[in-house]
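To assess whether ligand presence alters the predicted conformation, the chain was also submitted together with zinc ion. Input:
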Amino acid sequence: MPGTTTPEQDRIDRRFMAAAIRYARRHLGLTSTNPSVGTLIVRDDGNGPVIVGRGVTAIGGRPHAEPQALAEAGELARGATAYVTLEPCAHHGRTPPCANALVSAGITRVVGAASDPDPRVSGNGYAILRTAGIEVRERVLAAEAADQLAGYLNRSVNKRPEVILKLALSADGMIGRRGEGQIEITGEVARRQVHVMRAECDAILIGIGTAIADDPELTVRLPGLRTRSPARIVLDRLTRLPAASKLARSALDVPVLVATCEEGDPANRAELERAGVKFLATESYDGRVALPELLEDLANQGMSRIIVEGGADTARAFLEDGLVDRIALFYGPEAIGSDGIAAPIGRDHIPAGFRLVHEARYAEDGFAEWIRDI
Ligand code: AOF
Ligand code: ZN
């Protein structure tokens, strides 16, 4: 009930919701079409609030977060508060609705963050709780939860994955040097952060120019996270990806999807297929792969978050089509000079409608991230 929360209760609610959001991050990128939701069961027996149950949507998307947290809490759930990063579900899927599970377990207060646009849930989850006499507080850290759930929310609302545009910029706003392929702009700590971002996505996407010039591997190479490499997608209208590329040679270990058009080279395609590369049939528009249709197909395959990692033309194409939802810029300390390839955007040239949500320093490098509302 708005207006009846004391400042002390508000402080507690924000603290535990922040913890629930951090907990939900564990399975970001691993829950397929389902969002990675976090639930904490918290009770206060007079000595301050204590977490007695935790749940995060299971890998693959089920079970949901709430029943897992309730199972851990057991009888301690009776009279406790549940913190949920997304409105609890109200529909009968493979399991009964989470809203009903919270009621049956004897939870007396529910604090929610993001609302669920899924028409089976939207408003109905909270209604089940209120009808059962549970006190419900909505929208605590709603913006923070929506930031984390952006992949799921985009897929539900816009029918396409969240597109994250990641660029590493030199001090003079360049992303590379002409004719030199991959050059080091940021240091090791920043590169590791990129690998964490990759691990939380369903696919990494690049243009064929970058695939040929840099011959990148595009995997997650952090200790303990090597199994978290998402699929690699190459925009390759004419099917030019070399069969000898690192991408093609590793296609049996980590999926490679080539978005190609009718005009693509059939002989090279056959060779790539033998190497295990998969193809996405796409339309061409204005001499390049039609991006809205491609994204729709990827959403239909269950993808919720795509990270676009280059090059400049691919970045520009996504920006021009208005298909970027999150901009993640890393800034190295050194300038490249006049033979550099200019980035289509920079710290001072962020398209309208985006707002700054994170800033960080990774050793010598800077980082900033912007999102726009869904
Ligand atoms: C929750 N808790 O942890 C998650 C929820 O196909 P189903 O039955 O798994 O339902 C998918 C929907 O459930 C999904 O669209 C979203 O509305 C909700 N996800 N809900 O109560 C959770 N992951
Ligand atoms: Zn549920």
